[in-house]
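hi support,

uploading two proteins for the ticket. first:
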Amino acid sequence: MSDKHDAARAALEAALASTSPGEGPAGNGSAAAAGGPDRPRSRRRRKPGDPEQDLQTRDAEPDPYDVARQIVLRQLAMAPRSRQQLEDKLRQRNCPDDVAAAVLDRMTEVGLVDDVAYAEMLVRSKQAERGLARRALAQELRTKGIDPEVAAGTLDGIDEGAERARARQLVDKKLRSMHGLGVEVQTRRLAGMLARKGYSSGMSYAVIRDAIADSEEYLTD
C-alpha cells in the first residue's frame, strides 16, 4: 500500500497542478483564452482560489465537478481517505450529492479511492502502532465509514496466533512498570488495558496468567 500511495500522491500533485481554476482549456494561459491580447496581464489569468471554499461564496460560477475534484485531490494528497470521509468533506463544502457521487465514482474507477486498500492499510497501522485487536479494529473501520462487508473481509485476515503474540508483548511491557504490586492489582490493570485495545476476556486472562507466571518477580528458585 505504501508504494501505491506514493504513486497516487505523485499523480494527485500532477493533477492538482493541471486543474487550477481560471486557466484556459489548454492550461497555457494564452491571450486568446483570457479574452484578447489587450487585457492587462494581471487579468489574463485569474488567481487560483481555495478549492475548498464553499461553492456558494465563490466569486464566479465554477464548474461544481471541477471544484469537487480539487477538494478530493487535496484531501487525498494529505493522507489516505475512505470514500465516506471524502463524501463528508464534500458535503461540508456544500457540494451537491449528485456531483459528489459522480466525482467519487470516477476516482474509484481510476483507483484513487479504494476502500479495500484503505481498510487493509488502517488495520496494519493500528496493529503496529497501538497493538489493537479485532474488536477495536472493527470500531476503527466503522468510524471511517468502511462498508461492513469490506471490514469483515479485512478482519478475516487477522491471524489469531499473531494477535495473541501482540497481547503478550503488551502485557510483558506493562508488567515491567508494575513491579511490587499484588497479583490481583496487576491482573486487573492488565485486563483493563487489553480490553481497551479490543482483546477478548478469554484471551486476555490466559495471556496475563502466563505472563505473570513467567515474570521474574514470581519465579522461584
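and the second one:
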Amino acid sequence: MIHILGTKNSILNQFIAEIRDIEIQKDSLRFRKNLERIGEIFAYEISKQLNYETKEIITPLGTAEVPVLVKQPVIATILRAGLPMHQGILNFFDRAQNAFISAYRKHHKSGKFDIQIEYTSAPELENKILILSDPMIASGLSMYLSYKKLLENGKPLHTHIVSIISSTQGVEYLKKHISEDEFTLWTGAVDDELTAQLYIVPGLGDAGDLAYGSKL
C-alpha cells in the first residue's frame, strides 16, 4: 500500500513547498521545523492504521470511554537528515521506543559509491509496529538496507516507511525487494527523475546539509 499525501490539498503541501524553495532553504531553522511539522502530519495519518482499545477515563465530573492505542510503535530514522522528521513523529508517539541507523554514501575515485551502514541502535522489534523515516527515497537502496539491518533485532508485525519526497525508481525498488504485506509506504510527493548521482529532480537537494550544514 502506498499513500501519497500530497495529492490532496492540505497544509502538508505548504510545508513541502517551503522545504523545496531555494530561498526559504537558506533558513536552516525553518527547514528543520518544516521537517518536524511534516513528521507530525505523517504520524497523525499513520495513527489511523493502528490498533485501539476502549479505556474508561475518570474525569473531574465522571467517566468517559475513549479509544486509546493498544501499543506504541517503535520509531526509527536514518542519521542525520532524518532527525527533525523523527522528532515530529515522536511528538505524537511520545512514549515510543526509538531506533537510529547511520547510513551514508561512501564515494570512490571512480565516481561511484556504496551505501555504508556503520551504526545501529534499536530495541527488540519482534511483532512490533515499526515506523522507519528518512526525508528522501532516491534509489531506495539506503532505505532497504536500513530496513534489512533493523530486521536483525526481530521481524516487525508491520513497517510504515515514511519519506517526504520519493523518486519513482525508489518506490519501485522498495516494492520489488520488500514483500508488500510487510510494509506501507507514506510519502508526500513522488518525483520522476533521478540524476546520474542519484539525486531526485526536482527534489530539494541534500536534506542533511540543509538541516545541519555542509559536510566534508
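thanks. also noticed: The longest helix spans residues 28-47.
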